Amino acid sequence: xxxxxxxxxxxxxxxxxxxxxxxxxxxxxxxxxxxxxxxxxxxxxxxxxxxxxxxxxxxxxxxxxxxxxxxxxxxxxxxxxxxxxxxxxxxxxxxxxxxxxxxxxxxxxxxxxxxxxxxxxxxxxxxxxxxxxxxxxxxxxxxxxxxxxxxxxxxxxxxxxxxxxxxxxxxxxxxxxxxxxxxxxxxxxxxxxxxxxxxxxxxxxxxxxxxxxxxxxxxxxxxxxxxxxxxxxxxxxxxxxxxxxxxxxxxxxxxxxxxxxxxxxxxxxxxxxxxxxxxxxxxxxxxxxxxxxxxxx
Length: 297
What we know:
The chain is α/β, with parallel strands linked by helices.
């Protein structure tokens, strides 16, 4: 697995010589594995690493023990570590959010804060193949378009830093085998077993059933997501070309010309409309198929 991850880092240029890489370390198996792997990679490639842990204030003493575990592990490995303490339950209540979404928002706010302090930094997250498969299935059942079905990316720009996921091609069993070989302990988050969370139901109920149908189900879902990513990128190029031909900048927005209906395939029309609504409104986050359909009509 080690060489598999290193090869993907080299292939996609996820880490360059001289980089500063922040590693989101929760204390769980995935992030501990990523921390050890990147420290191992430092023997081949000169770059700096720093661990970032967010104590969300959700699980009381258990959560504080996770933070202590990460601090002790980083001290043992001689890796700098920054711990942020957040009141996620309070934030969720104040903003009318679920705990999962509130935790995600505050976690990425902490990452952004630290990344800004270090300037030219990259954030490494420990999402793996099962995480990506869960994301694709979750987006599928909630009615996402192609963008959602592409799943996660190995490398993407996120605000002031680049976000990298070196373990995206690795499955959970490989991670656990690596840690067992290293005789490395890790924390187990009890909320990962809570079936009130949609992703946990997919992880513990849906994926095992899919593996019964085909033991390579996770790998195949990831392959499909990668293919859709390539199609998405191609469609983006074609959409930009269509915009140059069939759209005109106006003072208060963008004017789409009816001629595009005669010259563009329907999928390109929909994508152009979707992009246009996003540009005019400032975000594509809540632009749904119904909105695109209304404009198309």
